[in-house]
Amino acid sequence: MELLRVEALTKYFETKKFFGATEGAVKAVDGVNFAIHEDKVMALVGESGCGKSTVARLVLNLITPTSGKVLFRGTNIYGFDRAGMKAFRKSVQIIFQDPFASLNPRRTIYDTVSEPLLIHNLAARGRMRAAVVDILGQVGLSPDIMNRYPHEF
Fold this sequence. Notes:
Layout: E1 2-16, E2 22-37, H1 52-59, E3 67-72, E4 75-76, H2 82-91, H3 99-102, H4 109-119, H5 128-138
Antiparallel strand pairs: 1-2, 1-3, 3-4
Helix pairs in contact: 4-5
């Protein structure tokens, strides 16, 4: 079953002159198409600067496309209300290559792991520590690292 479809996804970033007048546009992503089926994993690979991160941000609706569609289970994500977007983001994950650019250096591992659990009501505040310990264990990490920061590894 098709889970996610990207159709003619395009993102142009306007370039501005000194006083704010539009000078032109950088074509960051131009007509990208792909589909991801349920129970499949997709890797988006390419040269540095080719638009991989921009595609990922467009797919998560973190930035607005110039044109195109992202369909999740047949529904255009750009029409989701706040609750619909929250449910969508709970179902979709993107793992960026550079962990130091992906993790907030001012937040502990505990804060980073617990945040989505709070947002999606996956653990009560009183059980949060146990939930974080469980998640760290699932990926082979010791609970001793919970109070460390990303740069401390």
